[in-house]
Amino acid sequence: MVQISDRTWAAWDAVCEEFPDEPSILLRFVPVGDAGVAERAVLQSVREVQDARGSQASEVHDDPPFAGEWDVVRDGDVVLVKVVECDILAAMLPAIGELLERRGIDGVVDVADRPPVSEPPRIAHLLECRLRIRGHRHSEGDNHRWVANPDARAAVLEGAERWCRRDGERAAEALAVAVAPLVAIAPGEDVLQRLRDPADGGATMALSAVASDGFRILTVDAHSHPVVLVAGGARVEGARWRTALAELIDVLRVHADVLAYAFVKRGSTVTSARAVESLRYDWPPRMYDNGRRAHDLHAAPFEDAHAPDAFGVQLLGPGYVGRVPRTASWRAQPMGTASTLLEHVDLAAWFDAPFVPYGNAERLAMQTEPPPLLVQARKELAPILYTPEVRDNATSGSR
Hints:
Elements (H helix, E strand, L loop, with lengths): L1 E3 L1 H13 L5 E8 L3 H26 L8 E7 L2 E7 L4 H14 L4 E5 L11 E11 L1 E6 L2 E6 L1 H15 L7 E6 L5 E3 L6 H5 L7 E8 L2 E8 L4 E7 L9 H13 L4 E11 H5 L3 H4 L14 H4 L13 E4 L13 E6 L3 E6 L2 H5 L10 H6 L4 H9 L7 H11 L1
Helix pairs in contact: 2-3
């Protein structure tokens, strides 16, 4: 049997009254049995009820009630459920409970009372390393997406998780799924399988480790399959980025044979880096010849052969062989069996400070003029940079 506490309804009424435009609540489901099994069952039940309620409502209403945004994450022996803007919670929760019972899952739904969890700051000096895992491009008309090789992805995640947790017990570790709250991770607790195979196959997951002198974040984006590593805090401020950069390059070196592409950049907006959106919110905009701003989401499926921009450090996989520009501004060294590490000769110019004002917002990023160094680099690396013609040609070829 699934029980819903009276406290749940009282708390929901209170937040709806206080925040009528965007009420949200954090619930906990205490299952009888394995929390991992319950996590998947809760997620499946939520999705089924959302779909059913949405279909029923659209048949009756021109402006149907909103079933809300639901995010599910396991926290030890309980399952946390964050609900935002649900117009029909009184109908959905009992329906979810009925589906759980049909799946053989019993337990209690209540309001979550949680101790604070250490999390990275929203703004800090940082280095971001974005990894594109080898795989293949799937194209249907003008729809293109990159599909990572499962074995290569598993290998990269194993190394990335090691990098993120290398501070050991000195760091407070936590895991976040989509917009669900952080859940604390005990030192040595196994989270690798959860990163490889999240309960919600479409969710973005972030593992963080916060220490006194800085933090590390590993983000796994299930939609386009990049893996993002972020190192930030005091260990990156000023010229103290060199050690952090060397560690990230070591990750590239170890995994060179399973990476199609990677870059490392300086920034300050932690939230955009962990959300895989830093090229839009924390980097000088790149403009195409027609005056339109570059959109890195369009470039993402083509990174195996066309870089989204010029960066101080890039790993160029087999798709770049024979196309790497040779100029006095760049050092190219072999890495792995068919990759190249391309580094600018003046790394300090790229990494001593962000190219966009510290703590920027999207507006500031859009208004930031690229420094002459980046302007020149974009010219020198133009033969390997993504342009809309790359996508147009691929679209034509897939028809």
